[in-house]
Amino acid sequence: MCGEFTVFTKIKPGHADALREDLAALASGSADVEGRAALRQIGTLHDARHVIFDNDTRFLFASVFDGSWDTYIDDFAKTVIGSHFDTIFSHSEGFPGISDPGVKDWFVAHQAPAKSFVSSYPDLTVQQIWKDHRVDEAFEEVLDTPEFRAALDNPANAELVATPAFQKLLEEAAA
To answer: Which end of the chain is more exposed for a tag (fewer CB within 10 A), N or C?
Structure first.
């Protein structure tokens, strides 16, 4: 269901501070709002990390996403995230730009697939996780109502409340 994408690049000489500034700017303010909206619209990104290392000479971008790698890159290129990629990777040697036909080849040339990749939820997509979260929030709201408590205590519901499935639901909700 989910895959990982890890890219190592060389930072252009003298660009590490500018890269830090661009990363900070993208993580706050209107760029973050636009980026989060685009990420929500795409709906496939589990997480992403940016790391400057080796005495400011190298850069790591790593992410976990749903679906195919080609679709992942194409989807991001079509949104404001593509311009974010241009901003960030413009500090990397040789980056052709997200709209360049050779950009996927450039990423592949700088990619280092993980030798071991572990996910806590390998069979859940971002969309399923978001739905599970919405259902959980709605269920928690129901649990907190006096009407729910009254329904649990109503003898007419005793058979349903006694079922293993319902008991499991109550145990999970209490955990």
So the answer is: C
Residue type present at position 51: V
Alpha-carbon span 175 to 165, nearest angstrom = 15
Cα-atom radius of gyration of the chain, to the nearest Å? 22
User: H-helix or E-strand containing 25?
Assistant: helix 16-26
Q: What is the rounded distance in angstroms from the CA atom of residue 107 to the CA atom of residue 161?
A: 55
Distance CA 170, CA 168 (A): 5
Three state DSSP letters for 47-66:
EEEEEEECCCCEEEEEEEEE
Pick the closest to residue 106 from 118, 97, 114, 115 (CA basis).
Answer: 97
Residue 95 has pLDDT above 90, yes or no: yes
CB 110 within 8 A of CB 8: yes
Q: Convert the pLDDT of each residue in 160-169 to its tens digit.
A: 999 999 999 8
pLDDT at 30: 61
Residue listed under structure tokens 């007419």: 156
pTM: 0.81
Q: What is the DSSP letter of 7?
A: E
Contact at 8 Å (CB) between 57 and 49?
Answer: no
With beta carbons less than 8 A apart as the criterion, state whether 157 and 151 touch: yes
- pLDDT band per the 50, 70, 90 thresholds, residue 98: very high
